[in-house]
Amino acid sequence: MYMKNQYQKSKRLKKGSRTPKKLPKYLTESEISVILTNAKNSKMRDYIILLTLWRTGLRVSELVKLTKNDVRDNILVRLGKGHKDRIVPLETELGTILKLYTDTLQPKDRLFNMTSRTIRNIINRYTPEGVHAYPHIFRHSFAVHCLKNGMNLRNLQLILGHENLETTAIYLQLTQQDIIDDFNKIKW
Asked: CB of 153 within 8 A of CB of 165?
């Protein structure tokens, strides 16, 4: 009996002592727009990398592994997190840009032959002062943008490759905060 009570007590303490998970940060559409414009005005390859991160929600590790074969009407993410394949829809404009960009590549050539660190440096190069951007924030921004524009949570889960719906649902809290922020802007 004593052991059972001690176990239950320690279980409660552990559960109760956990700090709540921090909500992911994300960029606003205007911040994304500035970063993309800066890249587009400088180097087209960098613009395409950033646009791909923004419009697909890919992890940077998935982006650097993409080959020409992986990009068709959709993007095939091979062995993403959890060693699972998934299909990511490809928006028409980005699809056209990627087809033109990869025109001279061989089918097994990587789209962006670089490291995750290089992509982080590219992001830093085009991010305005005062804005904190990094590769994964594009993924968070993509998720929030999709939900703000009415995407079904289950579909977003599949696109992002989350195993649990709860992982994707964290973005609902972010969009709820946007609603509160917008409401607080109203002059009464």
From this structure: yes
Helix-helix angle 165-184:135-148, to 10 degrees? 70
| pLDDT of res. 23 | 77
Q: Domains of the chain (ranges plus CATH)?
A: 26-183 (1.10.443.10)
Please check whether residue 38 is in contact with residue 133, taking contact to mean a CB–CB distance below 8 angstroms.
no
Exactly one of 26, 55, 59, 68 is catalytic; which is it?
A: 59
Among the residues of 102-134, which ranges form H helices? 116-126
For residue 81, is pLDDT > 90? no
Measured N-to-C along each axis, helices 165-184 and 153-160 cross at an angle, to the nearest 10 degrees, of: 120
Q: What pTM did the predictor assign?
A: 0.82
Give me the pLDDT at residue 17, please. Answer: 43
The catalytic residue among 68, 139, 140, 145 is 139
CA angle 73, 64, 70 (to 5 degrees): 25
Cβ-Cβ contacts under 8 Å for 91 (sequence gap 6 or more) = 55
**Catalytic one among 40, 45, 81, 148?**
81
Verify whether residue 15 is a known catalytic residue: no
